[in-house]
Amino acid sequence: MSGPTSLYDWFARSAAEHPGVTALEVGGESLTYGELRDLAERLAARLLVAGGGSAPRRVGLLAARSVTAYAGYLAVLRAGAAVVPLNPEHPASRTAGIAEAAGLDLVLGGTAGAGEGLGVPVLAAGPGELAALGDGPVPDVSWPRPGPDDLAYLIFTSGSTGVPKGVPIRHRNICAYLEQVAGRYGIGPGARLSQTFELTFDGSVHDLFVAWAGGGTLVVPERGQLLSPVRTVNKLRLTHWFSVPSLISFASRLGTLTPGSMPTLRWSVFGGEPLTLDAAREWRAAAADSRLEVLYGPTELTISCTAYRFPDDPADWPRTPNGTAPIGAGYPVLDVVLLDDTGRPADSGELCVRGPLRFAGYANAADNAGRFLTDELLPAGEGPPAEGHWYRTGDRVAVQGGHLVHLGRTDHQVKIRGHRIELGEIEAALRRQPGVRDAIVVTVPAADGEPELQAAVSGSGCGADGLYAALGERLPPYMMPRRITVLEQLPLNTNGKIDRRAVLAELGSVR
């Protein structure tokens, strides 16, 4: 039996079945499914009024870790629009660029003044405005019904050209995803799921709708609580945890990952970056009653496209050459192929995927160039891909021991604390600064062993402090280099290209 055909309907089904069960806990507030549904519908009715009586197509959601953020997400979907998450902590110039690229009709803001200067009408929905919606009857509205090919959400990821890339996900994509994963984790009333990811990160969609699809409670930690995972799991009585693996290192440094220290956990899921087997063992010992799973997938493939579930007995865990957990196998509804350097199928190479989770192409068609292959595994053009075309992930993967193992990237894209970053976007931002001739950004191990960004530039009349300040006006915090070094000349290799290894050595010598 097939499930709901729109993203909002996954929540609405649980709201109808479990109206008195707690759906959301955030910022000291608690709402049942019935209360959250009614609030979302009152807010959705306001969105329709703000749109002049017609349904807005795309609504920016400028709110984080608040009732507004989660009720607002549902309200946008209920109004038949696509959600475009915007981070209140990102630079105003970046948010404005995304608002323009997304073609927003409206912005839903969670604080006073949010969204001003974006050139888009703003509907304020802070605590006062939400309280003013009242507890009376929900407005009698003829709700728009999005079709499977209508957009559910639009997330912007880092772009190599210096401009974020819009990734539109249709209702058919996200519903197909939930069909694969919503039933994997035994979620029902009484289950308490973490919400660790920001709404601008597509892992948040998993958090919200895997919880709500099963009638579980979405529990939203404060941002600072994420740096103390063990304490947070216990304080919030979490049964399900989903985060980037780097949060394990925070718990490890605090000395809190002691055996049996997280007795409430029943499921622990990690994604967004490789999970080392050593970190997995440490977490598993602390959550001895928890099943452990790894999810892998780019935003373009609707959150995740492969999964690996660890055997219950750590003695049966695999060994991999790079010490990271396998990413498992593709979901049954997907086709997966590995292509070697000649473009032929092999046991090791670039991972390419097609199927119902694959998005329909970037918001800017020019970004499609080089990212798709035809049914015959030949390069496709830059226009919208056809249904059977393959998406090139840019990830190097090999089959080892019957599982897919992630070996790295084929380009200069990196993952820092789960955030996908194109180094070229930071380099482009640096090159735009006065006095900078050229720039390069590399990753180096930080003190805790996790990767961090460092930059080197060549030029005259430019200083590291000024460059850092300028970047802060354009880039979000997670894309900021830890250090910027100004050199007279960037080292070149014999081909006249910037020598990344020499840059790494140079940066190491000036520490």
Walkthrough of the structure:
The chain is α/β, with parallel strands linked by helices and 511 residues long. Among the domains are: 170 residues, Rossmann fold (3-Layer(aba) Sandwich), CATH 3.40.50.980; 76 residues, Luciferase, domain 3, CATH 2.30.38; 97 residues, ANL, C-terminal domain (GMP Synthetase, Chain A, domain 3, 2-Layer Sandwich). The strands form seven sheets. The protein has a five-stranded mixed sheet, with no helix packed on it. Strands 16, 17, 18, 19 and 20 form a five-stranded antiparallel sheet that branches. A four-stranded mixed sheet has the order 2-1-10-9. It is globular.
Strands, helices and their partners?
Layout: H1 7-17, E1 22-26, E2 29-32, H2 33-50, E3 58-62, H3 67-78, E4 82-86, H4 92-102, E5 106-109, E6 122-124, H5 127-132, E7 151-157, E8 165-170, H6 171-181, E9 192-194, H7 203-214, E10 217-220, H8 229-235, E11 240-243, H9 246-254, E12 267-271, H10 277-286, E13 291-296, E14 306-309, E15 329-330, E16 335-339, E17 348-354, E18 372-373, E19 390-400, E20 403-409, E21 413-416, E22 419-422, H11 423-431, E23 436-445, E24 451-459, H12 464-472, E25 483-487, H13 500-509
Parallel strand pairs: 1-10, 3-4, 3-5, 5-6, 9-10, 11-12, 12-13, 24-25
Antiparallel strand pairs: 1-2, 7-8, 13-14, 14-15, 16-17, 17-19, 18-19, 19-20, 21-22, 23-24
Helix pairs in contact: 1-2, 1-7, 2-3
GO molecular function, one term: phosphopantetheine binding
Domain AMP-dependent synthetase/ligase: 11-362
GO biological process, one term: secondary metabolite biosynthetic process
